[in-house]
Amino acid sequence: MTAHARFSECGNAALALAREGWPVFPCDHRLARCKAPLTEHGFKDATTDPVQIEAWWRQFPNALIAIPTGEAIGAWVLDADFDPEKALDGPAELARLEAVHGRLSQTVEAVTPRGGRHLLFAWDPERPVTNSSGRLPDGLDVRGTGGYFIVWPSKREDGAEWRWETPPDLFEIAEAPPWLYGLIRGKPERKPNNGPGGFGFRTQGGGAREQAWARAALEGCVADLTAAAKGKRNETLNACAYRLGRMIARGWLDRSEVELRLLAAAHACGLLGDDGERAARATLASGLEAGIREPHEDLKDDETDTESTTEEADEEPRPPAFTDEALALRFADRHESDLRYVAGWGRWLRYDGRRWQFDETLHAFDLARRVCRQAAVECKKARVAGAIASAKTVAAVERLAKADRRLAARTQQWDADPWALNTPDGVVDLRTGEIRPHRRTDYLAKITAIRPRNTNCPLWKAHLKRILNDDRDLISYLQRVLGYALTGSTREHALFFAYGVGANGKSVTVNTVAGILADYAQTATIETFST
At CA 69, angle to CA 66 and CA 71, rounded to 5? Predict the structure, then answer.
């Protein structure tokens, strides 16, 4: 027995974190006070002292593990919260920001019980972060000096858990980009402007007609670049940059806004991913400089690509087929057979032909992008097409689709049949032993690692004979116990213990069975039996 064999899983994990130099303190796991500190001074009591940590988790074996953020750990946390009841979708807002500013570097990341994200970034003494979200959109928050966050293997009272997506023992904590610091620290990036320039950018030249005409050109260029085919993307970026650069020279557009919008479009069409941001920025700068050297001529009387009033130019209504609602319905039409959203978990699941898998890579958001990009190509109005292809519309489409009755699902409907065992070859009816093909409507999110085969399994049988002294009755009993464990039934009201003094095959047997069952096997914590 090890020194902490009777210690809770979270207690052992807290000690392990402390050994790595991460100070910890306990928080309440009960839903009524979830995440509230269990010590008098909260995060100020955090320590790496193993004696104190053991005392805490012996007193509160189910306590959540909390780590203070800031200089103490050399990191701060970007919190992308997901809360359907409060209409918060931090992961979607973060994806929208990344589409505009560029992807964040891979860093240590955790996933919260509701499906939110905690991204850790290296502490910069020159740019200290507090707990103020600055100009970040709703759903995004930060934890710096005076804050803390919860880590794996913490579980709430209802069993929902925090988990590492990219754990600190395998990944480095990345540096945050300047644009993220700019939003967090609340420094205005551009002077506000309520005129036709919009987006908080300032335009200085021309009248309302010229600026509205230039904005229509900008939206058209964004739509063209977003829909550009591979092999034409760099050429399209250069042409759009040249065209808009000529308008920048007249003061009809703000250069920073043009750069931002074209880079976002380059990201949407895949150019940044294939050629790299440096190459795309070089093409963009070259086109803009060429255009600025040849300012646009005055508009002629018949150049009226948009309406003459600012409000009409900025708020042109979309045709019915291209509203957020219509696009969300199109999304649901296209993916009703292979996507489901569970609000109780805050997660998308997609069907892979054998089971429903949790979406860990924003796949659903990417599918919404495809719907919007296709719609932008179909739309004949350049300005409307640009709005359709925007990150804002993509996020709205994905958010609306979550509530579509064809895609919405409940937590109770998954893996609900206790006699159905999903395997790579099909679904086994454990009452009859028959195997039938996989079906979407079974809503099975678990699957075994091994295909069922009618083989003799000589190695396994030899193992059972050795550890059970070739006792046929005991071998037969153990096989029935393991067969019963395949089901979700508890009608026997039985709990089985493997007993032995050591090196008698207990761990090998249990680990082999758990490896075969894969998703169907779970390890219970000691407090399951002691509290």
Answer: 140
